[in-house]
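INTERNAL AUDIT FORM
Audit reference: QA-55
Scope: verify that the stored structure record matches its stored sequence.
Auditor: D.O.
Record contents follow.
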Amino acid sequence: MYFTFLDLINTKGKRRKRTWIITGVVVVVGIGIAVAAIVLITTRSGDAEDTDTPSLNLEDFLNGKFSPKTFNGTWTSAILNALF
């Protein structure tokens, strides 16, 4: 690709545009980190320990004692019918 000397010079407008883009990306990443930190801090750490349901063991799964509930996907067909 062929560039002239003037194409390679950063103009004031290009520099300003690049600064706004970088600032926007930093702000979005900062907000995402803040939201994740708030969610992690506000959730209780003992949620899994408070439940009375037994945990899933690898032995139960391998021996066939674990039987998950079947998936009822009727809602997906309603959404697909509405879209198409």
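Auditor finding: record pair retrieved intact. The chain has a mean pLDDT of 78.
Action required: none
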